[in-house]
User: Which sequence fits this backbone?
């Protein structure tokens, strides 16, 4: 992979929680303007990659780079405002008593109100159902509407990189496909997407590349289309990554 193609790079990263390391000298590269899917069994380190990249977990060893620039140790605020990295974590992360519109306003607090109000209509056009309910309390929205609101809040910042963890949890298949189509559109417009998703086959259909982790280490890096054709994909996802593909390629 050429330097020009690379957006995100983990270089021998060791990271985890207190004295318990989850990522064990992990190295990988993700291409600019592509959707890279992180796969692996529970505890493999997928969500830890996103939290480390967003500065929520300390890098104990190694480097994290964005477009060749070392961003190791940068704070979440710095990564968001200066480097254009937005993070949509797993679960619901909204202010339930505030309206959908007010949640969007808070999402753009670093932009200033004038810019935020200019951008909110653009975001609402992407999510017609949220637009219809923009004056309703966020807690009253359906699970799908809440997830779309979370993604929309992140998009207010027009991120260069979007990190998203398990976007399909609690959503109907139809809403999941809507979210996946949006992510595909964003990538096609130049946004780099790094995603954790358990709905493996559906995610692989819209992703560009897939990275499989096991015990915090890279065990596979392939084109998503190539992995989708692998009859061992379910076994890979459930924890037999090394058995399905003994040779990792980056």
Assistant:
């Amino acid at each position: 992979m050429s330097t020009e193609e690379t957006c995100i790079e983990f270089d021998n990263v060791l990271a985890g929680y207190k004295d318990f390391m989850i990522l064990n000298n992990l190295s990988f590269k993700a291409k600019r303007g592509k959707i890279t899917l992180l796969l692996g069994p529970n505890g493999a380190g997928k969500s830890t990659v996103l939290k480390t990249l967003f500065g929520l977990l300390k890098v104990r060893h190694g480097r994290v780079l964005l477009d060749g620039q070392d961003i190791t140790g940068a704070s979440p605020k710095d990564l968001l405002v200066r480097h254009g990295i937005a993070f949509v974590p797993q679960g619901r992360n909204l202010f339930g008593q505030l309206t959908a519109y007010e949640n969007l306003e808070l999402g753009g607090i670093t932009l200033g109100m004038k810019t935020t109000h200019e951008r909110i209509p653009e975001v609402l056009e992407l999510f017609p159902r949220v637009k219809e309910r923009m004056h309703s309390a966020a807690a009253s929205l359906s699970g799908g509407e809440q997830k779309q609101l979370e993604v929309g809040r992140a998009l207010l910042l027009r991120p260069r990189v979007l990190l998203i963890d398990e976007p399909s949890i609690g959503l109907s298949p139809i809403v999941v496909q809507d979210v996946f189509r949006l992510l595909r559109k964003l990538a096609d417009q130049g946004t780099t997407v790094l995603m954790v998703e358990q709905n493996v086959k559906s995610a692989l259909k819209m992703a560009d590349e897939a990275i499989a982790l096991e015990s915090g280490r890279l065990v596979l890096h392939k084109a998503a289309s190539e992995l989708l054709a692998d009859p061992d994909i379910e076994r890979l996802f459930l924890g037999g990554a090394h058995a399905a593909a003994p040779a990792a390629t980056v």
In short: The two ends are 8 Å apart (CA to CA). The longest strand covers residues 6-17. Residues 173-188 form the longest helix (16 residues). The chain is about 35% helix and 25% strand.
